[in-house]
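Hi C.,

You asked whether I'd gotten around to modeling the 512-residue construct. I have! Everything is below, sequence then structure, no commentary in between.
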Amino acid sequence: MLIVEHLPVLVVVLSLLSAFTILIVGHINKNSCWFISITTIIVQLVMAIFILYHVLTRGTIYYWLGGWMPPWGIEYLVDALNAYVLVIVLFLGLICAIHSKSSIEHELPKPSQKIVHFYTVYQLFITGLCGVTVTGDIFNMYVFIEILSLAAYALVASKGGISLRAGFTYLVMGSIGACFFLLGIGFLYAVTGSLNIHDLSLLLPPLYGNRAVQAAFIFIILGLGIKMAIFPLHTWLPDAHPAAPSPISAMLSGIMIMVGFYALIRVLFTLFPFYYNYGLILLILGLLSMTVANLFAYFQNDLKRLLAYSSIVNMGIAATGVGVAAYILATVTDPQEALPEAASLAMAGALLHILSHGIGKAMVFLGSGNIHASIHTRELSKMSGVGRDMPYTGYSMTVGLLSLLGMPPLIGFWSKFLIIMSVAMAIQSVGGVVMLITFIVLLFNVIYAAAYYLRVAKVLMIESGAVRTHEAPFPMVFSVVVLAFACLIGGLFPILIIQIAVRASLTILGGG
């Protein structure tokens, strides 16, 4: 085996060992916690880039833990889809970790006493995210979802006070979601005797009429739907995001629900390829998510709560893209012969959207943390003109808001453009009332969301009235500026990113 083929397991193991190292070394020297975490994530990110390059140039990586051949042993399988997601996870995880160097001093009570625990749990969170992404075993996916979820519950509640209530709500909803997912896995194992995702994809087709398999399908959608905060399973998210420290809000919005989205499409498109016509289910859930969450977002005065509802909107947009792809493929006789262009474009748009949303939403959440550190409020009505006193934060947040809005030439424009274009192509190729309604509702919500994104930008940069303040500390400013440049560069030079997203979409749809 080449060295790069060992990297998927090292990405996970290194992060897990780092968490224990932080816990032990941190009690000797608290200042080492941040340095160990940052160093670990940088090394992981470099590994992820090498993995992505190898997958794109040489093909899928298969790693058998302990040398046990699947389906008996646990397999890590990395193709273009999860290699792409892994790079996004670690890039955003690194930026949020950099931001936390200064932000937790302002947001955590008695940070000197909690810093060791914060970075230990943060590194476990990263471990869970990486594990979910690279594993090819569905039970192993559940284990890593539990690791990252338990870490997320603790991080949300880390501020104490009202955050404890939000953390408890998140714990209850997350546990229900995990139980649904585990029940689905149990039913699949009872019927097939296998937990390997590829092996299950070979064993399940003759069993799609089985009641246990049908129940597993429903439980998996419910369980992972809670994790990705799709309507009406989103109720934990509007409370969890405002309560969490800003780097954790950014991670929950930019990464946590994105990985839940990845897990959903990995399981559905691999194990249940269009048999149950779940494209229509995803379309309905996606359109409802963006419509309902948009209505709530518009009337929010708490900036972080507004951004939380915006995350539900964007998950709805991504789910709509995936739903369009699945709906199209369910209508063609043999998608393996000629993968419809509209389907691959819709999936590529959805995958590009999780990147554009992750970058843009992480930036505005981190920027809101910068503002909170300076003027100690989350109320939008008290932030009038604060962006002019904090120019790096203000202009970076404006770039992020415009990217989330879908303004060219930022990266958020391209993801929404691809999804809308795919729906327009589907109207011509597939036709029907469903695609026409999807196009109208999607376009309406994209335009409607622009109203509150522009309102936030106007309050920060144009209006007057907030108290005079100063720019945030360097690590906090650096994080938002880097993400602003990522939005701009990704929008100006989108070809490479779109090509990777298309390659990943063909991988999961079976077209390449």
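If it helps when you're writing up: The chain has a mean pLDDT of 87.

Thanks,
B.
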